[in-house]
Each structure stands twice: as structure tokens, then as C-alpha cells.
Design a protein that fits this description.
This protein is α+β, with helices and mostly antiparallel strands. It has a domain of about 110 residues: Gcn5-related N-acetyltransferase (GNAT) (Aminopeptidase, 3-Layer(aba) Sandwich). It has 4 helices and 7 strands. It is globular, with a radius of gyration of 15 Å. The two termini are about 25 Å apart.
């Protein structure tokens, strides 16, 4: 598998990955009725680098990397990751995160912070912890999960 910068030719494949996650409303604090244009504008915004994970001609995942804050907080990176529904459990998210950690370091970031990891997303929490992230904060009942009600969000951090 290769991870490479996303280009405009990848937009359809990225939307194919993002749409089910947005519609489910179980992991990202995004409106479930976002249009394709809104979803892509969010994921491929000018303030971030967007990547795709590709095996052969299949795009199996996507992530973005950006500064978590502006100005004096710009040395901390932030990322969002989504794996194609048919590729979940194949290590795609792990490979994307490992790539993002190395890329962030090469871009001069000193740490990475995830601002809003849902405590109910046990698989992601376990993965981030296995990659050296610590939970440094918890926001009680921060997210209205469509099936579980209000769930906590975690702030996870890792120095680079």
C-alpha cells in the first residue's frame, strides 16, 4: 500500500469513503446531511494536506493533516482519518496514522493532538493508544450519538 497526497482525481473516491461515515453520524461531529460539496470542502480544505491510502488502483482510506491551532499553537498537528467501509480491520488506519506521524515530524510539528475522539469509538481509542497517544482530557456527554445517546469525547495527545 502507498500513501500519497490526494489530487482532484481522487475526490470521487474520497467522497465514497467519507459519505457513509458522515451519514452514520457515529464518529465525526459533522452534520449527517452534508452535501458532497460540503463534505469534500471540509476534508480537502486549504488549511490542510489531504492524503489517500491506495492499494493497486483502490483507494482504501484518506486522512488530512493540519495545524491544530494557529499562531503560537501551530506546532501541534491534528489529523482526521477515515477508512473505506470494506477495508475496515485491515490495518489501513494504523498505516495512515504512522504515515501522518512521520510526515508531521518532517513538517516541523512537535506533537499531535486529536481534539474529539469519541469514547464510544473503542477501536479507534485502542489504536491511538497503541501508537503512543495518551488521553489528556475528557469532555462529558460532548456528542449526541444516534444510537447511544450522549457520549464523552476524549482529547488525545502524543509528542513527536
Amino acid at each position: 500500500m502507498i500513501i500519497r497526497p490526494a489530487g482532484s482525481a481522487d475526490h470521487e473516491a474520497i467522497w465514497e469513503i467519507l459519505e457513509p461515515v458522515i451519514r452514520a453520524g457515529e464518529t465525526y461531529a459533522l452534520r449527517r446531511d452534508m452535501s458532497k460539496a460540503e463534505g469534500l470542502a471540509y476534508w480537502i480544505a486549504p488549511d490542510r494536506e489531504t492524503f489517500v491510502a491506495e492499494r493497486g488502483s483502490d483507494i482504501l482510506g484518506t486522512y488530512y493533516l493540519r495545524s491544530n491551532q494557529a499562531g503560537g499553537g501551530a506546532h501541534i498537528a491534528n489529523c482526521g482519518y477515515v477508512t473505506h467501509p470494506q477495508a475496515v480491520g485491515q490495518g489501513i488506519a494504523r498505516q495512515m496514522c504512522e504515515h501522518s506521524l512521520l510526515h508531521a515530524l518532517s513538517q516541523g510539528y512537535r506533537a499531535m493532538q486529536f481534539n474529539f475522539v469519541l469514547a464510544s469509538n473503542v477501536r479507534a481509542v485502542r489504536l491511538w493508544e497503541s501508537l503512543g497517544f495518551d488521553t489528556i482530557g475528557r469532555i462529558p456527554e460532548a456528542f449526541a450519538h444516534p444510537g447511544l445517546g450522549f457520549v464523552d469525547a476524549l482529547i488525545m495527545y502524543r509528542p513527536l
